[in-house]
Amino acid sequence: MFSSIAGRYDLANHLLSGGMDFLWRERVARLVAGKRPRRILDLATGSGDLALELKKSCPEALVVGADFCLPMLGQAAGKHVPHLVQADGLALPFSDGAFDAVTVAFGLRNMASWERALREMGRVLRPGGLLVVLDFSLPEAGPLRTAYRFYLHHVLPRVAGWMTGRPEAYEYLGASIEKFPRGSSMAALMLACGLEARRPEPLCLGIVSLYAAEKPGPTAAPTAS
Fold first, then answer.
1. What CATH number does the domain containing 85 carry?
2. Does pTM surpass 0.85?
3. Nearest CA among 160, 52, 178, 169 for reference residue 105
């Protein structure tokens, strides 16, 4: 599905989010930069926009972008993202504790097992390292939630389908957001996977949420290798 929309993925995202996706990625990058990481893994990097934002905020860090979808990595390569790896999020080809920070933006929701993916991210994260998950959620109950659900299930698939030629990809989007754990449910899932979750941070009135967690252990950064 992602292979078929790779060429128009960025355009659809920017227009359908009203450009807010730029601000969401900046928020993630600022949060990661606060930990002063030396090695960062951007999982489900897609077209590489978050990897580029991370490199901008952490210029001294090695930023690795990994994705299962080769055509999406082709889009990232076209933006000159320097370190790209084709990888399965449920079986990452990296050693234990290889990264100081791991990010995944709008990608965990699409993985076959959220728990297995979180455990893999935790495995490649060093003790004391930071995991940041950015993904769609739903506003709290009320008129906004009702209006957003109508947009999500009826407006967005038609507009995005016209832009990309694949309306079914965006019909899937709405269904996946409805099923994806959010708020305290995501924090509980992170905890069950051995990660110390922080308080979830809703963005844009809850349309998107940011989830941060740390891997238990010493906070001192590893020596360069």
1. 3.40.50.150
2. yes
3. 52
Domain that holds residue 191: 2-136+183-214
> CB neighbours (10 Å) of residue 8?
15
Summarize pLDDT for 7-66 with one digit per residue, the tens: 456 656 666 677 788 899 999 999 999 999 999 999 999 989 999 999 999 999 999 999
Domain assignment of residue 177, yes or no: no
- Summarised one tens digit per residue, pLDDT across range 173-192 is 788 899 999 999 999 999 99
Residue 154 in any domain: the answer is no
Number of domains in the chain: 1
3-class DSSP state of 42: strand
Pairwise CA distance, residues 210 & 225, whole Å? 31
Q: What angle do CA 109, 42, 44 make, to 5 degrees?
A: 35
Q: What is the pLDDT of residues 97-109, one digit of tens each?
A: 999 999 999 999 9
